[in-house]
Design goal:
Arc Repressor Mutant, subunit A; 3 domains; Rossmann fold; homodimer; 12 strands; 3-stranded antiparallel sheet; alpha/beta
DNA sequence: GCGTGTGAAACGATTCACAGCA
DNA sequence: TGCTGTGAATCGTTTCACACGC
């Protein structure tokens, strides 16, 4: 019987933890540990806005102002921040620099994370040059692909390595975070090799479900899926059915609303 | 006073509806209308797997099998599907073709959605050629960018148009879905123009918060943010405190777990 | 028997509302 | 006075458990 594994799926779900087996991490004393996932997903947004504010010279923000800027409710922002401790001043607001520091610490902004990208197709190539990675402390240290036409070529000063050498590359660069931009069929096999080599976080752009051991965190980003969700909402907007819309016979009358 | 607007934020939240004003949609009788957002986010995944199954010749799936394949609990899958009606057979499972059809209808898979991409940088270029779009019914009908070096060039047979002509392009192509891959600073201005021109769904790759009228649905995908969330989890893994984190020499014995 | 469909319970996340402190 | 920090209320989602029909 194989050890505990989880399937990682939706674009908002990272999978880790929870092994029914031993583990039972010892509620470590130091920094307050795990925040609610929903909060974790928002912290980067707050952090980005704080960086922006501090660059503009703002020294203090109220929860109201910051919340407005990032598009959440003020109460939610306060609750989120309260999970990390009390870094605000009543009647005043939050010290931007302080909050920035605390938040950055929580998110590991100080670290320089080496990242390996596997699959240098359309998307992988774009990710290799994406400035949003490097600007947030992620260094692309290797590009990996099986295509002989690509191997040896450089993107942004990084040479593309043969997929056959994946193990070597991961070991050499000591990367624990990997980005998967391979075709769906290849994704699981690559993931297995990455994980075996010590990678514990995977950002998966392939449209397939990965099965990984519990200790590995996977986040899936499926661009096609995102558009499909938009299409879903499109379908039930404007009353004009797009013609070719076979269903939708009657009632899409927006607000049918004779009340009561 | 401008009409109701919402800020759209996290990668899992689409914003629409909810206007505190009138609306109050009348619980329309016909086809079961809006599904819970969490369900909507999963339907594309189910659909993809069903397509796969049907291509393999499978004719029936149980909730258990399908759930396993897409990485959710069987109960969740059944509840999700139950929102669209009863398309399964008790004691047997779901007819793949039928379910595929129903689900496809719900997600508008029959439609051919024209899509405009604004911002042909690294990412925009990749998205322009991304097969995951076209294969799911989304046709890239225009690429728009202000860079004179790009205007007139072609990607995948589509010519890049001047951002100045955005309105013309949207009008001509009748696109209601747009993809934003501009720098963060430009995103809001472009979004405003898109919305004014009749676009009602935006997939936003820019790392900034968009403010749009209520009727417009926005989904944000922030790739840097995704990595940051992974980094957060990385930070609280392996007990070895970081120290530039080479850890992993020892314990990666796949199943650390001497059971019990 | 077996697997769907579904109410009910459990859980988590968001919102409200207010006490407490600068 | 004003804004934070937080219990309590609300809302949505997931999970459980079982009745129903093939």
């Amino acid at each position: 019987m194989p050890p505990t594994e989880t399937r990682a799926s939706s674009s908002s779900a990272g999978a880790t933890s929870a092994g029914p087996s031993g583990a039972r991490a010892a509620e470590t004393v130091s920094g307050g540990s795990d925040l609610p996932p929903a909060t974790v997903a928002r912290l980067p947004v707050y952090l980005r806005e704080l960086n922006l504010l501090s660059r503009t010279g703002v020294e203090v923000v109220s929860s109201g102002a910051l919340a407005e800027a990032v598009g959440v409710g003020p109460a939610q922002l306060r609750k989120d921040l309260s999970h990390l401790g009390s870094y605000g001043t009543r009647g005043v607001g939050y010290d931007v620099a302080l909050l920035q520091a605390q938040l950055g610490r929580e998110m590991g902004s100080a670290h320089e994370w080496p990242v390996v990208i596997v699959g240098i197709g359309n998307l992988g190539r774009a990710l290799a040059g994406y400035s949003g990675f490097s600007s947030r402390g992620f260094h692309i240290v290797a590009l990996v692909d099986p295509n002989p036409d690509l191997i040896g070529r450089e993107i942004n000063g990084i040479e593309i390595t043969d997929l056959a050498d994946l193990e070597v590359v991961v070991a050499r660069t000591k990367a624990v975070i990997a980005v998967l931009a391979t075709p769906a069929e290849a994704a699981q096999a690559v993931a297995d090799r990455l994980v075996y080599q010590g990678v514990t976080s995977i950002l998966n752009f392939a449209a397939s479900v990965l099965t990984v051991p519990d200790r590995v965190t996977v986040r899936k980003v499926d661009l096609g899926q995102e558009l499909q969700i938009l299409a879903y909402h499109e379908l039930r907007k404007g009353d004009d059915p797009v013609l070719a819309g076979p269903l939708t016979d009657a009632a899409l009358v927006r607000s049918a609303g004779g009340d009561s």
